[in-house]
Amino acid sequence: MWQRFMTNVKNMLRLEKEYFKDAELEIAEKNLGLLRISSMINVVLLLFFYILTPFIVKGWTITLQHLLFLPAALLFFILSSLLMKSYLKSSRTITGLCQLYVVVVFVFVILIDVFPYPSAPATFMPVIYVALPALFILPFSHIFFLMLWAEIVFIVSVKAVKIQSMAENDIFNSIVGFLFALAVAQVILKLRSEDHDIRSRYKRLSMLDSLTGILNKKTCEDAIRSYLDVGIPRTCVLLFMDLDNFKEVNDLAGHSCGDKLLAETGRLLLSSFRPTDIIGRVGGDEFMVLIKDFYDSEDTLKKTFTTFQTDLVKSLSGNPLVKTSCSIGAVCLKKQVTNFDTLFKLTDQALYDAKASGKNRYVLRTYSKTERNCSGP
What we know:
- The chain has helices spanning 2-22, 24-56, 64-85, 91-114, 125-135, 140-161, 164-207, 217-228, 246-253, 255-272, 298-315, 340-356; strands at residues 234-244, 278-281, 286-291, 325-336, 362-366, 373-376.
- It has 377 residues and is α+β, with helices and mostly antiparallel strands.
- The protein has two domains: 2-206, no CATH class; 217-376, Alpha-Beta Plaits (2-Layer Sandwich), CATH 3.30.70.270.
- α6 runs antiparallel to α7 and α10 (255-272) packs antiparallel against α11 (298-315).
- It comes from Faecalicatena orotica.
- Keywords: Membrane, Transmembrane, Transmembrane helix.
């Protein structure tokens, strides 16, 4: 039972770590929006209390602490509004601003709850503890140390200023609120990280071709466009591949055998190219690869093509009904600017020429005004 508990704790911590790493920008945007909303609500509530409290609590008078809280909240509203319009905002800046806001709120709450009314019970400290876990998306350690700091300052201030009976009551209530807030913070973080994990899984699944395990057509082409269509000189190679005689494989050996062939092709592509390369299935028996930042020689590239074609044929040698190979069209881009559509047309033509010259061949071309061709078996 203990082992299971520790496994669950480790899994929870892993999910939370992945959440704050993978969704850093998303979290920052949400926190900035929450900061703007909460500071605006703070301003409205303070004005409301300033007006309403004298009619409810007889003898109540506004203090310097109450007055200074309003411009402080207004300042955070202005800063968050300006930051939302800025293009220079960073997640670290936003997180720091949110944590500073929490510190400022705690400071004013302690000043208001402790010093003006030594004989009155603290009103706002327990409420702030309950609200904090839902206010911003922060790591549990940040929430813990922010609240621990506030709790220590509050206890020291209460013991120094208030009468003993009232101090004991305030300290007890604040400790209960502190512990309750920690539990709520952990539950909220757990739910948020699990929700992010589920959404990430669905997103990954929607990007992959279910049969081959590589990118689907839309995701692959979008990724290549994002790399090429930015107006920056690139050095890369675009490959367009087609399985030879794939229709005959389906007709003679059945679609299940054809599916196995596609899956094996996807596996070989993943093992033949780098994890940083873009690999996808873009048609029934068509595949595309973008080798990013390729600075090796053309001989290395030709060897890669030949090895892949040989490995594919070898992997199917056990089934006499499956007689297929792979034709490849490729275009090298060397520190040049182009877009996906232009490069794809050239690659498509290279593949057409490879298939026209026979089975299991490749055509390699260089993207330049004077085009150079290399063909191979």
